[in-house]
Amino acid sequence: MGPFKHTVDDGLDVRKAAFECMYTLLDSCLEGLDVLQFLDHVEEGLKDHYDIRMLTFLMLARLVSLCPAAVLQRLDRLVEPLKATCTTKVLKHTHTHTVFTPIWRSGPPLV
Fold it and tell me: How far is the C-alpha of 17 from the C-alpha of 110, rounded, in Å?
């Protein structure tokens, strides 16, 4: 049909579930974790799919408050993936008006 490529990531759901479990471990049993090894996986998550990156941002924010010394030890390795995410160009969503139109027409203005 054309020169289009569609990539299918069969392991995405499993990886998302694994990172959600990792986030839960931060609340339930942080004292039993090797935080530096945990940060290795967080670093890999920062280079993964968008949904996994969002989970790792949450984990990283939580880790900064729970064990800042460990995060500081790995800061040099975390900066580049964070910088790459911050400098990624966001595509303009062309159908924004279709999302807001039904909400606006559903009732009288609030102001």
Answer: 40
3-class state of residue 65 by DSSP? helix
Angstrom distance (rounded) from CA 86 to CA 31:
31
Burial class of residue 103, CB neighbours in 10 A (0-12, 13-18, 19+): exposed
pTM: 0.71
* Model confidence pLDDT, tens digit, residues 60-101: 999 999 999 999 999 999 999 999 888 887 776 655 554 444
> What are the Cα distances from residue 62, in Å, to 22, 67, 100, 106?
12, 9, 34, 39
Token pair for 101: 């139109």
